[in-house]
Design a protein that fits this description.
Layout: E1 21-24, E2 36-41, E3 45-51, E4 58-61, E5 86-94, H1 103-107, H2 116-125, E6 128-138, E7 141-142, H3 148-157, E8 165-166, E9 171-172, H4 175-184, E10 189-194, E11 204-212, E12 216-226, E13 235-244, E14 247-254, H5 260-272, E15 274-275, E16 290-301, E17 304-305, E18 311-312, E19 315-319
Parallel strand pairs: 1-11, 6-8
Antiparallel strand pairs: 2-9, 2-10, 3-4, 3-5, 5-6, 6-7, 10-11, 12-13, 12-16, 13-14, 15-16, 16-19, 17-18
């Protein structure tokens, strides 16, 4: 049951708020540990939830695209707070048989916002769960300038735990133990949030630190090399880059990590994005390469970087259709530019 609050008799116009983003980094130092909260990093789709208090709900992806129709099981959230208007921050998850978030499963649910019949069928086969971890606007008032602790207290007071959504608790202090627990349970990682941090819309802030248990980064696909043998007609490798000083810098070729179906799907996307112009600056030495407009965002797993900033032993992890190219985290670290 939601906590009592002001009664609103007319719908409220809610502002659009892009989600605050975390910066990759290490655990806070031991002396500062008690000044940080720790939340499990979930492998799902970021979602901002708009509840105007009129019995409707709108979900938007990190890119700003409306995705409400893709997740019909979240529709009842529209009335969970009655007439209280709110803007909430969270992550949409699809859980595997072990109860762990699986982005691969979630991909079958994404992109169906304008296909309600297909979305309903997929919801029956692959249900999702929304994890809520912040509130940015409540009862007609912005909470952006309040500290994290005050926003979390307000969120807890809403008691938003339902059939397809929940509000997990955050752990204050004990960061090393929290990180070790995520590794032991095979979870993606940890997000560390400073207790006094305000909410910075759309910013990649050092007040939030994300720690992945695997080394991976977002990249932009700028070209591909044709496969041979059984891969004839399909990409044998994709050429990927990251932004640096206004340019798309080449960071390597990725030739492993796909299933046959995924490689075929990627081939169609690459053909649709074909161009005669190399998007990388400077252009890499890649004889026989086919260039594409760099609009596909992918995530790759790799061991380390070379001194030149190239990815060593990269393998394809997944497409990121939830990220727009200009909003992806595809940036070369400053010390490698």
């Amino acid at each position: 049951m939601a906590t009592p609050g002001p009664v609103h008799t007319s719908p409220v116009t809610l502002p659009l708020i892009p989600p605050m983003l975390a910066t990759p980094g290490p655990l806070p130092p031991p002396a500062a540990d008690a000044r940080w909260a720790y939340e499990t990093k979930q492998d799902g789709q970021r979602a901002v939830v708009y509840l105007p208090g009129d019995g409707t709900a709108v979900l938007r992806a990190r890119s700003g695209q409306e995705i409400t129709g893709a997740y019909p099981e979240l529709t009842p959230l529209a009335t969970a707070l009655g007439t209280r208007p709110a803007i909430l921050d969270g992550e949409i998850l699809a859980l595997d048989e072990q109860g762990r978030a699986s982005f691969q499963l979630l991909q079958s649910r994404m992109g169906l916002a304008h296909a309600p019949a297909r979305a309903a069928r997929r919801a029956a086969a692959v249900p999702v769960h929304l994890v809520l971890f912040d509130v940015m606007h409540l009862d007609g008032r912005s909470l952006l300038r309040l500290p994290y602790t005050a926003r979390r207290e307000a969120l807890r007071g809403l008691a938003l735990d339902g059939p397809a959504w929940s509000t997990p608790a955050a752990l204050v202090g004990h960061g090393p133990e929290a990180l070790r627990a995520t590794r032991e349970h095979g979870l993606e990682g940890l997000v560390c949030k400073r207790l006094d941090s305000v909410y910075e819309p759309g910013a990649r802030s050092r007040s939030w630190i994300k720690i992945r248990n695997m080394r991976s980064e977002d990249v932009l696909v700028g070209g591909w090399l044709p496969g041979r043998g059984r891969l004839t007609g399909l990409p044998g490798a994709v050429l990927v880059g990251q932004r640096a000083a206004g340019r798309l810098r080449y960071v390597g070729g990725v030739g492993t990590g796909w299933s046959e179906a995924e490689r075929t799907e990627l081939a169609a996307l690459l053909r649709a994005a074909a161009t005669d112009v190399c998007p990388f600056d400077p252009a890499p030495a890649a004889p026989g390469a086919h260039w594409v407009v760099p609009r596909l965002v992918g995530e790759v797993r790799y061991s380390t970087r070379t001194r030149e900033g190239l990815l060593r032993q990269p393998s394809w992890l997944r497409l990121r259709p939830d990220l727009a190219p200009e909003q992806s985290a595809a940036d070369i670290p400053d010390d490698l530019v």
